[in-house]
Amino acid sequence: MRRNGRIGGRRKALRRAPFLFSAMLLALAFALPSLAAGPWQPWRPGLESARFALEGSGPSPRPELVVLRIDPARFAFRLLCAGNRGGKARTAREWSREFGLTAVINASMYMKDQLTSVGLMLAKGYVNNPRPAKGQNALLALDPLKRGLPPVRLYDLTQTPIGRLRLRYAALIQNYRLFTPAGKNLWKREDQKWSSAMVGQDHRGRVLFMICREVYPMTKMVERLLALPLGLRAAMYVEGGPEATLYAKEGDREISVVGSFGSRPEQTQANTEQWALPNVIGVVPIP
Prior knowledge:
The chain is α+β, with helices and mostly antiparallel strands. The protein is 23% helix and 37% strand.
């Protein structure tokens, strides 16, 4: 009787197996979209955000990388400069409201005159700084002058001469690279640590606006950027300290992240307001 009972139980289990298997497949089908989405939160087609925790470094709050990923097929990129906009620097929120920008990030570091970029910067119909900076080998190119060129492209100047890019794009923004095309970290000094705003581009051509509010060593930051599931093919450093800003607004959603003064908690918390910025990169939806 015991043996027959076991056999009967197995037969019943086998009869139930197809139904159980179908239920498992159905549950997996519903689960897959959320798994595929990962940490990314969609705002609208072509625009999504994510937050990535970074390992701690010192007594400051646990560092976090905030990322906005933008599809150039759905958003147009603009370089806006105070020099040809009334000479007035604006906060990222003010740039956004005045010019209808969905997202705003620093374009570059700037000089003591509070207007001029430290590297080459050309906007469409306006020259901010005509002189390339030595050692800055990242160049973000916007506003193509010829058909067939990508609308936005982050170039490595060790591979593409700057003179060639002047003939291809109307807007050029020069900054420091974070890593080489082969993925070699270019930031080695442990004492180089601060809040950081960065712009990258992935292998699908999407542009990433990135910021870490907490003070964090740049050599570790680059390591994390290469290890995270961002698919970066290139990235550049655009600003550090309290001036570093990432702002975005779409409907009820809003992101406003600013850099901090130092690594101690009270220094990080001290800066909560956006600083006025002379040059920014903004995006607007393509109709």
